[in-house]
Amino acid sequence: MQVSALPVLTYFNVRCAPVLEAPHFRCASASFYQLIEANKVSVMKKVSNFERRRQRIRYKLRRNGQQDRLRLSVFRSGQHIYAQLIDDSKGLTVAAASTLDKELKGKKSATIEAARAVGELIASRAKKAKIDAVVFDRGGYLYHGRVKALAEGAREGGLKF
User: Fold this and answer.
1) Each residue of 19-29: pLDDT tens digit?
2) What is the pTM of this model?
3) Which of 30, 45, 58, 157 is 20 to 30 A distant from 151 in Cα terms?
4) Neighbours of 113 (CB within 10 A)
5) The CATH classification of domain 66-156, taken from the options 3.40.50.10190, 3.30.420.100, 3.30.70.120, 3.30.565.10
């Protein structure tokens, strides 16, 4: 009996010997999910690209020398959309609005019209806080659809960006 010099991985009672020529581990009897659990296969590539785009956008906003302006940050979920005015120098949220607010509760929440209403609401709350110029942070989302409608609603409400 010959002893192999290769390490043997054991997950879920499945033994697999890694193939050293390939950049990842292969096993004939292990399923794809068992290899994921063994952290040998990356499944989250699309999410990591989204995170990279989000970080790149935030870096560019900070680099462009507009630290005196607040950041209008957008978060979009499947059913709702949220907007915040953030002071990055102090780490505070100055104003916030979403489709869950009492003023917008009766409308459908996952539509372009609701996103436009959230933009107008955040603009009115910014006016109450005496803010007229912001930097728009689309948060990694494409400037299209609900994100674009929120930005247009904020512009119609009087915010400059």
Assistant:
1) 444 445 455 55
2) 0.67
3) 45
4) 12
5) 3.30.420.100
